[in-house]
Amino acid sequence: VCFSEYNCEPILLTDEDDFTFISLKNPVLTFEFSVTMDTLSYSGITLQSTVLPNIVYHTENDTGSIKTVDIVIESILASKDILTVVFPSTLQSSYNDGFDGNGDGIAGDALNFTLYTETLADYNDDGQIDIYDLDKFTSSWYAKDYDNELGPISGTAPHFIPTFDSTYNIEDMSALLLMWNWGNGFASPEM
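^ thats the sequence. predicted structure below, dont judge the formating
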């Protein structure tokens, strides 16, 4: 028996618009379902990247609520990447009702959920590497605010893969310069 304001078939309540850009530091993605879920079925959830071949992650759920699932990303993410979370049709509620991925009231559908990682050095997420970002970087450097450090990096702009080291040095300046060049149409070498 299902006692829910929604159909018994679980749907995903979290919407793509609920997310801004995914942080490159300690990313955790939280999703909410319409009904309590069989947490064993969470093992079918997958995470894919357009830049990285393999992302290491695991799912967790809050013991106080089995209507949510957290996807904890353990891998270092790439800047300006597109991530796809696949919620398979094999997900089911704690009442054994199948997942309704497309929300049509009929179970048996998967759902692909698209997310975007933040762009390295674009501190205000406006899609530009500009004077605002330079000012934020400089202020953070002088204040030793390591939440805004950028390097060292590897890869190619704009999809650099940062390895944050809690220090400001030439690596961070290089990352800013390379992202600035990419963002303003200048050629950018590979790191």
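Residues 170-183 form the longest helix (14 residues).
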